From TrEMBL:
Pathway given in the UniProt record: Purine metabolism; ppGpp biosynthesis; ppGpp from GTP: step 1/2
One Gene Ontology term from the biological process aspect of the record: guanosine tetraphosphate biosynthetic process
Keywords: Kinase, Transferase
InterPro entries the record matches: GTP_Pyrophosphokinase, NT_sf, RelA_SpoT
GO molecular function: kinase activity
Species for this entry: Anaerobium acetethylicum
CDD domains, per the entry: NT_Rel-Spo_like
Superkingdom of the organism of origin: Bacteria
Name of the molecule in the record: Putative GTP pyrophosphokinase
Sequence ranges assigned to domain RelA/SpoT in this UniProt record: 53-176
Length: 253
């Protein structure tokens, strides 16, 4: 991000930079919401469950600059700290992640600076997510400033794991006991298997015929159960009284 020199000389330079990053978050948030709405309109499906956004605190920025050996300055901040503005997109399925990443990359005014696929190549601790560093133009009254935003795209299960890992990291200041690190990595593998199984189940459900026959629920539920059993899982019949709720939810009223 290149800021006009006059902004660096301004005593309110931090406020100006903060304003730019805040504006960038609004721009990207709006784009994602529109893309999600369009996907619903065209495909009757929302790939995005929800969106979280945040601005890195000044304390966190300073800590990151010092850790990387950079002098504390506005210029170093906008040059070397790429996640000052961060957006996290939460999806139901792994396939949604790549759909969203592709839609973002096709936006004419968004420039993709880098991509890190931690789903195909998880971090050593088991972390999985898809990261995109992008820049988006912010138009001011007398200038335009390209501003960086880090976008993290992950499933609900990945987000749950990452949230727990984050808490453990800070609780032990990055030095968690070996057995905890080992268990956490094993949990990451379980999360990956869960995501794969849920995606497979969702694909099986989408292939089921949709009709208005009275036995529609029986046909669809039986096929889903058979698919589930074929995957090697145990299946328990729903408790009495659940059937009506499920039928209503699936549109068989």
């Amino acid at each position: 991000m290149k800021l006009p020199v006059k902004l660096y000389e301004d005593v309110d330079s931090w406020k100006t930079v903060n304003f730019l990053y805040s504006s960038a978050l609004k721009e990207v948030n709006t784009k994602l919401e529109i893309l999600n709405d369009e996907f619903q309109h065209v495909h009757q499906y929302n790939p995005i469950e929800h969106i979280k956004s945040r601005l890195k605190t000044p304390e966190s920025i300073v800590k990151k600059l010092r850790k990387s050996g950079y002098e504390i300055s506005i210029e170093n901040m906008v040059t070397h700290v790429n996640d000052i503005a961060g957006i996290r997109v939460i999806c139901s399925f792994v396939s949604d992640i790549y759909t969203i990443a592709d839609m973002i990359g096709k936006q004419n005014d968004i420039k993709v600076l880098s991509v890190k696929d931690y789903i195909q190549n998880p971090k050593g601790n088991g972390y999985r997510s898809f990261h995109m560093l992008v820049s988006i133009p912010i138009f001011l009254s007398d200038s335009m400033v390209d501003t960086k935003v880090e976008i993290q795209i992950r499933t609900i299960a990945m987000d749950f794991w990452a949230s727990l890992e984050h808490k453990i990291y800070y609780k032990f200041e990055g030095k968690a006991p070996e057995y905890i690190r080992t268990d956490l990595k094993e949990c990451s593998k379980i999360v990956s298997m869960l995501d794969a199984k849920m995606l497979s189940l969702n694909e099986a459900i989408k292939k089921l015929p949709v009709d208005g026959a009275e036995n529609g629920f029986e046909q669809k539920s039986a096929a889903a159960v058979n698919s589930y059993k074929a995957a090697g899982d145990t299946y328990e019949e729903p408790a009495d009284g659940c059937r009506e709720d499920v039928e209503s939810y699936m549109g068989f009223e």
